[in-house]
Design goal:
Oligomer: single chain
Shape: elongated
Largest sheet: none
Number of helices: 1
Structural class: mainly alpha
Order of helices and strands: H
Helix content: 55-70%
Length: about 45
């Protein structure tokens, strides 16, 4: 009987690119919120 996690495939370059795109999306959202704050905008009505 094999261990529980041994059947999982090893992460490849596409998983790395997924994390890079996720990080860039989060950074873009943060920068947009900071720009909104400069103009006196609010996040919620």
């Amino acid at each position: 009987m094999s261990p529980r996690g041994s059947d999982a495939p090893a992460p490849d370059i596409y998983v790395g690119l997924l994390f890079v795109s996720l990080a860039s999306l989060l950074m873009g959202i943060i920068f947009l919120v900071l720009e909104l704050g400069k103009y006196g905008g609010k996040l919620a009505p």
